[in-house]
Structures are given as structure tokens and as C-alpha cells.
Amino acid sequence: MSKTILYIAQSLDGYIARPDGNLDWLTSFHPPKTGDYGYESLLKQTELILMGRKTYEELLDFGIDWPYIDFKTLVVSSNSAFKINTENTTLVSDNIEKQLSDWKTNATKNAWIVGGAHLIKSLFDKQLIDEIIISILPKTIGNGIKLFSEGCIETDFELIDCTTYETGLVNLHYKKSN
Asked: Domains in the chain, ordered, with CATH?
């Protein structure tokens, strides 16, 4: 069965972005000598990508070609007039639950939630996240946007894997408890 997986990096002090959404602290972190922190493995198991509007705009600001051209991508925004500039990408401005339900009907692989915080909270509160993979970078940034904002509903998860890398990064992989 297809799963909805949150795979995201956070600082040691729990932030996924600076207060203005900037990810410079993350992009300055170097990859390990071998491997890629599980990213390629995740992509091989993914057919749908979900992200919020601010995350979409931040990715476009990286100045690179759209990296998810081979995936159906949903950009979630309350602004129904927001313009999408990438191929195979659709704006969703309401009822993400139905979109995910419809997708799961014929899905053969998983959905990856890229970010951001508002979308994560919304999906989390609606119990639509099946697994969480958190890459914790050994770096504090002091303030910013928290991975889980105040008011997230209480949910139990079970640790299914923990991988450490020579860079000090740790991947924690959880699945929602039944």
C-alpha cells in the first residue's frame, strides 16, 4: 500500500528554515563521502510530491532546473490564483484530503511531503502522514520555522530505523503507530 512520507531536514534545535524561509544553513551542509542520506532511495519509491507554496518558491529560487519533472507534483496554497511555472505540477487550493485519497486509489509508489511547516501541520492534524524521516543536522541556527509548530495533535510513532553518517547527520525513520 502506498504511504505518505514526510522526509525533511531540521537543525539540531528543531528548525526547518530561517524565519524568512531561507534554507542557506541547509544547502551549506556537505554530503557524506558515500551515499546521499537516503534521498535517492526515497525518490525510487516516490511517484507523488507534495509541497507548500513557500517551499515551491524557495526551490525555484535555487536557480537550478526543476528537479521533480519526472514526478507528479502538487503545490498546496490557499491562493487559487497562484501561478505554477513547472511541468507536471498542479496547484491545489482546497481539499488536499480528497486529492490524496484519489491518488492512493491507483498509486503504485509513495507520496513525499517536501515541506513546508504549514502544509506539514495541516497533513499531520488530519492524520495523513504515515511515516516521518527526519534528517537532523549537527547544527543550530537559533531561530526560525519549527518542524512541528505548537498545537500539533498528539500522535504516537514507532522508530523503525536510525542511520548515522560520518558528517554527524542522523536520519530517524518513524512510522505512525496503529
From this structure: 4-176 (3.40.430.10)
Instruction: Write the secondary structure of 127-163 as one string of H (helix), E (strand) and C (coil).
Output: CCCCEEEEEEECCCCCCCEECCCCCCCCCCEEEEEEE
Residue with cell 530517524: 172
SS3 111: strand
- Residue 165 vs residues 38, 105, 135, 156: alpha-carbon distances, Å: 11, 37, 10, 26
Cell numbers for 100:
490524496
- HEC profile for 49-108? EEEEHHHHHHHHCCCCCCCCCCCEEEEECCCCCCCCCCCCEEEECCCHHHHHHHHHHHCC
From first to last of the 178 residues of the chain, give the pLDDT tens digit.
Answer: 799 999 999 999 999 999 998 888 987 777 777 778 889 999 999 999 999 999 999 889 888 889 999 999 999 999 999 999 999 999 999 888 888 888 988 999 999 999 999 999 999 999 999 999 999 999 999 999 999 888 888 899 999 999 999 899 999 999 999 7
The β-bridge partners of 6 are 113, 132
pTM of the model: 0.92
Cβ atoms 16, 141 nearer than 8 A:
no
